[in-house]
Design goal:
Two copies of one chain form a homodimer.
Chain A (H helix, E strand, L loop, with lengths): L8 E5 L4 H12 L3 E8 L6 H13 L2 E6 L36 H16 L3 E3 L4 H6 L5 H14 L1 H4 L5 E3 L7 H10 L22 H13 L12 H10 L3
Parallel strand pairs in A: 1-2, 1-4, 2-3, 4-5
Helix pairs in contact in A: 1-7, 7-8, 8-9
Chain lengths: 244, 244
């Protein structure tokens, strides 16, 4: 592992989706030396992980992939063989969704904490955002405050007076904001993958596809990845609103 | 998964060592319906995991084994190829040892939290004890207080007013106390494994063997597992003190 003197190290969680890929670009733009951390957690498809690899390669950052078979726990549409939900766009985020993986962020952040301590990073970045935090308990600001207190007590670094801080820089941004930031930072969005299903093209019908397309629509930017099906709201607004 | 009405469910972390095996017996004696959770985390040997299996079988509890390759993180004598320490008995526990796995308890407890939420358990038991908590930051009482606050904020159950509480029932006990409890509860100690190395017999020279033997010695009970080598303090006290 190379260390660049004068640069602060960070662990940046990278799923390969729009949010975490944009966050990686943002973190790099702030001058951190980044190790990207992805999880091979028994996803129903590997497309997400391939995207994470491509993004890490693109940005030439160290990339670690942790195997973590969440199927041992069970309880989510993302890891079990239950139907991926397909809610109307205005209902998404209002309830805790079926795709909620119990304790997901706590598990991922804990492992990131271990890695951060080993590589002497002082920041852990997670791409949770505004839309998530109405629905997922572990995306709320009070959750992040609390986990930072716990992490300070949990580590050798913390005990010795140092700190490893979790930050969620996208927390207050909407999807449209994130698309705009990605555009600004020239993130290779064609390499990202957000769909819950693992088809050749993104499905365009799962919650994640719909939220992504809504974000692009509101930002006035065309999503570069191909879709199997475009939702009505996207088609309806396409001609008037999408400028490129 | 069978659910017994009227019984509270618990997740009990089980390494297969003296402490977690005794804790399992203790938790069962309190009437919990237990799922034991072990980790296959790239230990240098599998003996510990075999012991966990035998103990879970003995107590006829559901047993889940989560694969979690901590070598992706690195940084400990227990997972990397670095020398296992062999400190004098009176020095053990005074400093953070080489066998400290960064964020270990936080990682294990987070996964236990996910499982607890899925199986609707309201307690998570961890076998951390007195000797650990001088040396390991994530074994101190203030750490457990803090993680309980975080876990309440991290889960659907917590948000909906419920609770999943982490308890470390052995925290204030010495190894000798634990040996006495094990004896009282007739824990099959011959099935447990505490040695950091993976030989045919326990080595008797690593920190873990020494602490275990010291505990048996102080409790006045003979350790039923075979050792390659008995440390001087054990041999010296054996004739006078060990009664059975």
């Amino acid at each position: 592992m190379q260390s660049h003197p004068g640069k602060n190290r960070a662990v940046s969680l990278l799923s390969g989706g729009l949010d975490s890929s944009t966050m990686l670009a943002l973190v790099l733009s702030k001058g951190y030396e980044v190790t990207a951390l992805s999880f091979d957690y028994g996803q129903r498809h590997k497309k997400e992980l391939e995207s994470a690899r491509k993004i890490a390669d693109y940005y030439k950052v160290e990339h670690r992939i942790m195997k973590l078979d969440l199927r041992t726990i069970g309880g989510s549409a993302l890891t079990d063989q239950i139907e991926v939900p397909d809610a109307p766009i205005d209902q998404i985020g209002k309830e805790i969704p079926m795709t909620y993986v119990p304790a997901r962020n706590t598990i991922l952040l804990s492992i990131a904490l271990g890695l951060a301590e080993v590589i002497k990073a002082d920041r852990i970045f997670i791409g949770a955002n505004h839309l998530d935090y109405s629905g997922y308990p572990d995306c709320r600001p009070e959750y992040f405050e609390s986990i930072n207190k716990t992490f300070k007590l949990a580590t050798k670094v913390g005990v010795e007076g140092g700190d490893i801080k979790v930050e969620a820089p996208l927390l207050k941004f909407t999807k449209a904001d994130i698309v705009r930031i990605a555009d600004e930072l020239k993130v290779p969005l064609e390499l990202t993958w957000s769909c819950y299903k693992g088809g050749e093209k993104a499905c365009g019908t799962c919650d994640s596809c719909k939220l992504r397309l809504k974000g692009f629509m509101e930002a006035g930017i065309e999503d570069p990845i191909p879709y199997e099906h475009y939702p009505d709201f996207y088609v309806k607004n396409r001609k008037d609103k999408l400028v490129r």
